[in-house]
Amino acid sequence: MLPWSQETGAGLLFADISGFTALTERLQARGREGAEEIALVITAAFAPSIRAVDRHRGVIVSFGGDALFAMFPGAVAVRRALAAAKSIQQTFARRSDGATSVGPVRLGISQAIHHGRVQIMHLGAPGRRHYLLTGRAISALARREARASAGDL
């Protein structure tokens, strides 16, 4: 597939797990076993979020450590992004403390939502595809996320 670019309106969601950095630091001290446990904890924490994005017809653009970035293209994009965010928030609110090898942990979630025009770019060549989103809406989302605290939506 050749590189291409397209502009579209979209709802945007950024969700960042809080409490994960401290847990990672404690688990890293356990070496390889700790690293494996970090992967299990983050996978379990993200699973409901991934399902919520999918259920509301969103697309996960990227993961970055303990955060995910999703786009909801098309009709009623903001409503779908908000519905996914509420579902994610409820999942984290219902969770009790999880047991880990370094003691109990309570993970939270902070989220930011924005809507606007984005430029979607497909870069790369067969076997090395990469999608990139740019635009003012992405910058606005980043500013909102920087102000969000655990539990915020």
Description:
This protein has 153 residues and is of the alpha+beta class. Helices cover 41% and strands 39% of the residues. The protein has helices spanning 20-28, 32-55, 77-94, 136-147, and strands at 4-18, 59-64, 67-73, 98-100, 103-105, 108-125, 128-134. The longest helix has 24 residues, at 32-55. It is globular.
Concise account of the structure shown:
This protein is α+β, with helices and mostly antiparallel strands. It has helices at residues 20-28, 32-55, 77-94, 136-147, and strands at 4-18, 59-64, 67-73, 98-100, 103-105, 108-125, 128-134.
Cα(first) to Cα(last) distance is 37 Å
Total count of helical runs of at least 4 residues: 4
Q: How large is the radius of gyration?
A: 17 Å
Average of pLDDT = 86
Largest sheet: 5 strands, antiparallel
Secondary structure topology:
Elements: E1 4-18, H1 20-28, H2 32-55, E2 59-64, E3 67-73, H3 77-94, E4 98-100, E5 103-105, E6 108-125, E7 128-134, H4 136-147
Antiparallel strand pairs: 1-3, 1-6, 2-3, 4-5, 6-7
Helix pairs in contact: 1-2, 2-3
